[in-house]
From TrEMBL:
The organism's place on the tree of life at top rank: Bacteria
Membrane-crossing segments per the record: 20-42, 62-81, 93-111, 131-148
UniProt keyword terms in alphabetical order: Membrane, Transmembrane, Transmembrane helix
Protein name: DUF2243 domain-containing protein
Pfam family, one: DUF2243
Presence of the UniProt keyword Membrane in the record: yes
Keyword Membrane listed: yes
Amino acid sequence: MARTIKQKNKHGVYSTRNVWSGFLFGIGLVAFIDETFFHQLLHWHHFYDKSTTGIGLVSDGLFHAFSWIATVGALFMVADLRRRNAWETTRWLAGMCLGAGLFNLYDGIIQHKLMKLHQIRYNVEILPYDIVWNVLAIMIIIAGFILLHRARRKSLPSGEMTENALQ
């Protein structure tokens, strides 16, 4: 059954929302993991390490609030997509990987090296940590692009969707 232009536009909007909600969730998830493990459990660094411990803790709190807002916002978008029967798991996972990977790469290059807000860890040879951090981020980004490519392939050339496209 051929889809109307309105249906195709609606599908495009929902496909984009799936990716963006996954993207926000990926940012929130990786920020939560960073905050929980590297800041709180391992005590390797704070979000901002160029001042007192108190300022570092406040910066951690703001960082945690940011990650929580991104996660909750993403979940509201997911709830709306589910309510509209427009949930696309593969696109959402692609967005999640892209958000997580790009945030980690931004953190590793911009925050660690250019802005020098903090390092991954102090009093150690930092190069192996930087390499692992950034290579892992790139691998997650590549996984996101692979998933996005697979999601796009689920659409037939005529624009009609396969049975599994919305799963």
